[in-house]
Design goal:
This protein is α+β, with helices and mostly antiparallel strands and about 425 residues long. The protein is about 40% helix and about 20% strand. A hairpin with a 2-residue loop joins strand 5 (about 115-120) and strand 6.
């Protein structure tokens, strides 16, 4: 979910100059919330929060009506309702979101094969090779917006520019339901007027470091000596930000999506201090992570756990494993070992398991013997049962019992793969 609430929106007029452009960044507008409105039109125009149960869950998405009250993603639903008491809260329906995401990505690939999905609701497109068939980048963007609306009932915002970085900024500025074209000749002026927080890669801490030195706009970055940027951000980021401020971004649209991590986390209905319960939940989450790894053809070199305590203090711990793995038992063992080294100073509100540093299944090399051979057979049988009877058909005995979580959510859901 973007941070914008739709205020200060800038869009291009019909016939805007698209000289020197070739990259489109398409971003669905408040995607989860918009899908809920699509399926229940009575929610249209109302402040809407998509998230877990009131008071315990977190906000996955919110309509623009709710965002104008300060509601943001990852915010506790209880806090969101304090900001916007009239909001309607609905639980997420990820299967529905994934199905519509797949449909939208298919529309993009009808126009160009050069599509790079960033997440379930946004993608880069390189339309340089599609001009002869479909027209200029600006024309293609307008056509895509019409098709997405006509075929799905959802709106999207599109930025058109010479580079990925500028296209992404442009789509954000145009939201919701907008189109902003930044031609090659207009790029420098467009960037100069943007706040430093608009640059891709500038998070809150980096922005504060710059703003504390009076560097508030991209124009200020261009006038700042490199040593000052390096002291504020570090040499690597200083060089990168200076490059982006000049409109330089050599990255191409990458059609082969490389997963960086796979994770699941959950927020409990009530804070949990029982270590036995927490170990059981880690085991359940580890199985879900492992299942997603196997489905994607991945193994993980690093396993991480995340705990958020009752006072919202959050801790993360990770460790590299001797051999890459996608075995649920192994991931669970590592997660529980990491957990055992954390001092539980208070009850736990949220818990998560993440697999990182992914590599292709089997690319880690073959050992002389496989300590996890039996567990691999168990996982294969579980995968087969779940494919036949559904994801909740088979579970470990140790994880049976009353549901303790608001909902176990995939972190940063990806766009569904092509068939």
């Amino acid at each position: 979910m973007g941070r914008g609430d739709g205020t200060g929106r800038i869009v291009s007029p019909d016939g805007a100059d698209d000289t020197g452009t070739r990259i489109l960044h398409v971003d669905m507008d408040a995607f989860y919330a918009s899908v809920e409105v699509l399926d229940d039109p009575s929610l249209a125009g109302r402040p809407l929060i998509v998230g877990g149960m009131e008071g315990r869950g977190v906000v996955s998405s919110a309509s623009y009506e709710a965002r104008r009250f300060g509601v943001r993603s990852a915010m506790a639903v209880g806090r969101a309702l304090q900001l916007c008491p009239t909001a309607v809260v609905v639980v997420p329906h990820f299967d529905r979101y994934a199905a519509l995401s797949k449909q939208v990505m298919s529309i993009f690939r009808d126009v160009t094969p050069l599509v790079e999905p960033l997440s379930i609701d946004e993608a880069f497109l390189d339309v340089s090779g599609a001009r002869r068939l479909w027209g200029s980048p600006g024309h293609i963007a307008r056509m895509l917006r019409r098709r997405v609306l006509d075929e799905t009932g959802l709106t999207c915002s599109i930025g058109v520019a010479a580079t990925k970085h500028v296209a992404k900024i442009a789509s954000t500025v145009s939201k919701p339901d907008g189109l902003l074209i930044v031609s090659g000749p207009e790029t420098a002026a467009f960037l100069a007027a943007r706040p430093v927080r608009a640059l891709w890669g500038i998070g809150p801490k980096a922005a504060e470091a710059l703003e504390g030195r009076g560097i508030r706009f991209v124009a200020d970055i261009l006038q700042t000596p490199r040593p000052v940027l390096d002291r504020a951000l570090g040499p690597a980021m200083g060089a990168r930000i200076a490059q982006l401020a000049r409109g330089e971004d050599p990255r191409e649209v990458e059609t082969e999506r490389v997963e960086k991590s796979v994770g699941h986390e959950e927020t409990f209905l009530e804070d949990v201090g029982d270590t036995g319960v927490l170990r059981s939940e880690l085991r359940r989450l580890a199985d879900r992570v492992a299942s997603r790894l196997r489905a994607g053809g991945w193994e993980a070199r690093t396993i991480a756990v995340k705990l958020r305590f009752a006072d919202f203090t959050t801790l993360s711990r990770s460790v590299s494993v001797p051999e890459p793995t996608n075995v649920g038992q192994r991931i669970g063992d590592v997660a529980i070992e990491l957990f055992s080294k954390i001092d539980l100073v208070q009850p736990v509100r949220l818990i998560g398991v993440r697999a990182e540093k992914l590599t292709g299944d089997g690319l880690g090399g073959l050992a002389l013997w496989d300590d996890d051979e039996d567990w691999r057979r168990v996982d294969a049988a579980l995968d087969d049962a779940r494919s036949r009877f559904g994801g909740g058909a088979v579970r470990r005995a140790s994880t049976l019992g009353p549901r303790r979580d608001v909902n176990a959510l995939p972190t940063n859901p990806k766009a569904p793969r092509e068939d």
